Amino acid sequence: MPALKQFGFGLLLTLVVAVAAALLIVLPVWLLLVSVALLAAWMALTRMGQQASALAAISIATLPQRLSSSSVIVVGIAGVVGVLVALLAMAAGFEATLKETGTDDAAIVMSSGARSEIQSALNRDTIATIAQVPQVRQNAQGQPMVSTEIVVAASFPKKHGGADANVEIRGVAERVWDLRPNVKITAGRKLKPGLNELLVGARVRERFAGTEVGSTLQMRGQKWAIIGIFDSGDAFNSEIWGDADVVSSAFHRESSPTSMTVQLTQAQAFDAFKAGIASNRRLQVDVQTTRQYYAGQSAGLTQLIRMLGTTVGAIMAIGAIFGAVNTMYAAIATRGREIAVLRAIGFYGGPVVLSVLLETMLLAAVGGTLGAAIAWAIFDGFTASTMGIIFAFKVSPALLWNGLKWALAIGLVGGIFPAFRAARAPIISGLREL
Amino acid sequence: MKYLDLIWAALFRRRVRTIFTLLSVVTAFLLFGLLDSVRNGFATAGQAGANRLVTASKISFGLPLPLSLYERFREVPGVTQIEYASALAGTYRDPQNFIPVEGHSDSFLDLYPEWKISPSEREMYLKTRSGVIASESLAQKYHWKVGDKIPLQTSFNRKDGSTNWTFDLVGTFRITDPSMQSSNGIVYGRWAYVNEAREKGTDTVDWFVLRVPDANDIDRVAREVDALSANSDHETKTVTEFAFYADFLGQLANIGLIVGAIMGAVFFTLLLLTGNTMAQAVRERIPEMATLKAIGFTPRIVFGLVMGESVLLLLLGSALGLAVAAAVIYEARSRVGYAAFMSPMVQAIWLRGLALAVIVGLVVGVFPALRGMRLRIVDALSGR
Questions:
Q1: According to DSSP H, which parts of chain B are helical?
Q2: Which residues from A are below 8 Å from B273, CB to CB?
Q3: Considering only CA atoms, which of A98, A264, A237, A100 is closest in space to residue A170?
Q4: Closest residue on chain B to A286 (Cα)
Q5: Residue A276 burial (C-beta neighbours within 10 Å; 0-12, 13-18, 19+)
Q6: Where are the domains of chain A?
Q7: ipTM of this model?
Q8: Percent share of chain B, pLDDT over 90
Q9: In chain A, what residues touch B272 (CB-CB under 8 Å)?
Q10: Which residues between 179 and 218 in chain A have a beta carbon less than 8 angstroms from any beta carbon of chain B?
Q11: Which residues contact B332 (CB under 8 A, 6 or more apart)?
């Protein structure tokens, strides 16, 4: 019977811990802070609370005696949080770069079946027809705000060695500036039509050799002068722009621009725009808002990285929990006599549990903060490139807070069993160790 | 070996502590097994294609090339067989069920002997214009049986105006080489059927595959093939299939760096954790070790006992962790999906894992072992 009771108790405890850990992860910040404040008040004002704070003070005061074993919890959890934050920051950075690139009131038109601009080919008739559709906004001069572009790729040597890497080259028309107001020229000037000139995106300049204003690049057997650098804060920063006609003829693709970007009169006009085009059988094109297009380009990869990060983090967390349990069992074993004496003189079991939990979660919080700080220091702004898009890792406060919550959850799960063990060990056998 | 009993007993003195430490070691090596399999998978993808050259558009893979190049490639010395394909993609029933379809020329299965298929089904495939073959795991996923009609919703227009393509499943295959198993999710049809039915891109292909049996010819053939399309509107880039996969996966992520960094963090924490456990274990047993030395065990043997305990702990944990990883990988790879890029748990991964376990065990055991070896019997026995 006692064995069954023990087992039942263990099961119940596991359930309670699982619920508590889930709550920890799900509850918003303010609610958690409120609960912490309530706990602090309870500890200061009620009798049991004061016992708990006394016990907690003792354990924390004696921490320096257990420095090496406590460091196991701190470093273990720091590792979990560091890896988790780094991987999630990679996903967040990639997603952010692509999400910002699109808006809801601009549409991108590509030939049907093309999964990305570089695979599409439009003909001039189609372009002319679409430009006249009523939902297309017109600029002050009464011209449709449409940018017809050709996207191709070329490879160039990187700054820090390694193989040449592919860069997207976008041939743009003069009207592109109307449609992309967020693109700022940070050095040099805009393109002059009809010349072998290139405008280099900020990220390309950081990563590739010989891309400052005034240098020359070799492409398709011709020399191209770099006359400016632009910064758009989004995926276009990984591109090089040139004059559409000059790029088309250099790549022998005069008659087929790859895509057109259309500014709509308003975001709500998109459905009508899409319906109007679909009803015209001769136009075999796919239409999406630019936001949908760029989100689609990033979705698969960001999901994959997030899944990788969470899986790796979860496995590391389980390892950290075992480490924490080990350390805390050892901690309460060395304090077995103290706890027995305290309980003999009247301290309740509850405060004992709470003090052990507080110690574990304090160590976990230190570990979590350490891991988050290291991840932020090393990875925030770290640039990487995938699928031709150069992006920066984004370590946001929300992400750091997420990491900290994982740390606290690990501390909770790791500390609960030792805590209960400390509170329920028979006092007599604890005293006997004297 | 005669001391194994002693070491084992020492290890399991404090059962709970040892078990929890073991569990931590198990999770560390579980992670190692999984990540190393991903890294190995990326590094070996397409290895079977060392004698196949892939010729595709230099600008972006998948831009159409004219079929007429086929005749010109046949004249390049060193090329024994050529096949070509056009790809389309669609969804099956649910927009989430993405299925890539490749229409290949008749020589396809000759160039890809890793695609094992029964002779009768192979014959059906070559005879049926709208016939397709799918991998056993893909057919299992969607509950297809040979003889089923498979309708796909695509965004590729057919000449009759619709975008729905229907194929007949005439056979299933199994890819025997792990480095090519990422193709398990692809349905293979006939190029002639795709070319005839599609509205755009008639007589174009998306890529060619050339078989060059002699490794010494590979560089020359690649150059000669690309020279045939130089300065045209369909410039090509020809690399071995192995290099093609490596390029593609390399663009995706520097997996070696990511895996290395994660495992660095994991092993650092592991060192600390097991080091702590071993230090505690030895500290508690100082009087016993003194006793051993008093009854005649030499300091060297005492050193060996502690090192043995440490290495045994790591080996047990790593063997268990790697075994669990092997099970997880096996299960994941039997389904169609991203797991295809993980390599199976090959001997190399086991050896790397166990070697690392031994190294960690040795590093972690050194200081406690030295302590045990150097203790002075008198001081230890009197508790000083």
A1: 4-11, 15-44, 69-74, 108-111, 119-127, 136-142, 191-197, 218-227, 241-252, 255-284, 286-294, 299-333, 347-374, 377-381
A2: 72, 76, 323, 326
A3: A237
A4: B155
A5: middle
A6: 11-98+299-432, 106-265
A7: 0.86
A8: 64
A9: 71-72, 75-76
A10: none
A11: B339, B342
A384 neighbors A391 (Cβ within 8 angstroms): yes
Query: Are residues A113 and B35, on separate chains, in Cβ contact within 8 Å?
Result: no
Distance CA B241, CA B236 (A): 14
DSSP-assigned states of every residue in A201-238 = EHHHHHHBTT-STT-EEEETTEEEEEEEEEE-SSGGGG
Query: What's chain B's average pLDDT?
Result: 90
Tokens, residue B209: 């595959």
DSSP per position, A228-240:
EEEE-SSGGGGEE
CA pair distance A60, A365, nearest whole angstrom = 14
Q: If you count them, how many residues does chain B have?
A: 384
Beta-carbon separation of A316 and B268 below 8 A: no
Query: How high is the pLDDT of residue A434?
Result: 55
Q: Which residue has the tokens 């030499």?
A: B298
Beta bridge partners, B104, equal B85, B190
* Spatial CA neighbour of B70 closest among B191, B246, B248, B196: B191
Give burial (CB, 10 Å; 0-12/13-18/19+) of B271.
middle
Single out the residue of B205, B165, B202, B188 nearest to residue B73, CA to CA: B205
- Confirm if A400 and A106 have CB atoms less than 8 A apart: no
H or E element at residue A110? strand A106-111
Phi, psi of B198 (to 5 degrees): -80, 155
* Phi, psi (deg, nearest 5) at residue B163: -115, 10
Q: What is the pLDDT of residue B64?
A: 87
Quickly count: other Cβ atoms within 10 Å of residue A275's Cβ: 11
Q: What is the pLDDT of residues A184-223, one digit of tens each?
A: 999 999 988 889 999 999 989 888 888 888 899 888 778 9
Rounded Cα distance, A217 and A209, in Å:
10
Report yes or no: A360 and A414 within 8 Å, Cβ to Cβ: yes
Token pair recorded at residue A149:
């572009």
For the stretch B7-14, contacts whose Cβ atoms lie closer than 8 Å and that sit 24 or more positions apart, written own/partner, are B7/B305, B7/B308, B7/B309, B7/B312, B8/B312, B10/B281, B10/B285, B10/B305, B10/B309, B11/B309, B11/B312, B11/B313, B13/B281, B13/B285, B14/B281, B14/B284
> Which among B236, B243, B235, B225 has a CA at the least distance from the CA of B51?
B243
- Single-letter code of the amino acid located at B221: V
Residues 6+ apart with CB under 8 A from A191: A172, A197, A199, A227, A228, A241, A242, A243
A113 CB near a chain B CB, below 8 Å? yes
pLDDT beneath 50, residues of chain A? none
Length of chain A: 434
- C-alpha span between B267 and A247 (Å, rounded): 51
Distance of alpha carbon A240 from alpha carbon A180, whole angstroms? 15
Nearest-angstrom CA–CA distance, B147 and B128: 12
Nearest-CB residue to A72 (from B156, B199, B276): B276
Separation between Cα atoms, residue A406 and residue A428, nearest integer Å: 38
Determine, for residues B31 and A312 on separate chains, whether the beta-carbon distance falls below 8 Å: yes
Whole-prediction pTM: 0.87
pLDDT one-digit tens code per residue, B346-369: 899 999 999 999 999 999 999 999
For B331, the token pair is 């299960």
Contact indicator for B30, B321 with CB cutoff of 8 Å: yes
Chain A with chain B: Cβ pairs closer than 8 A: 113
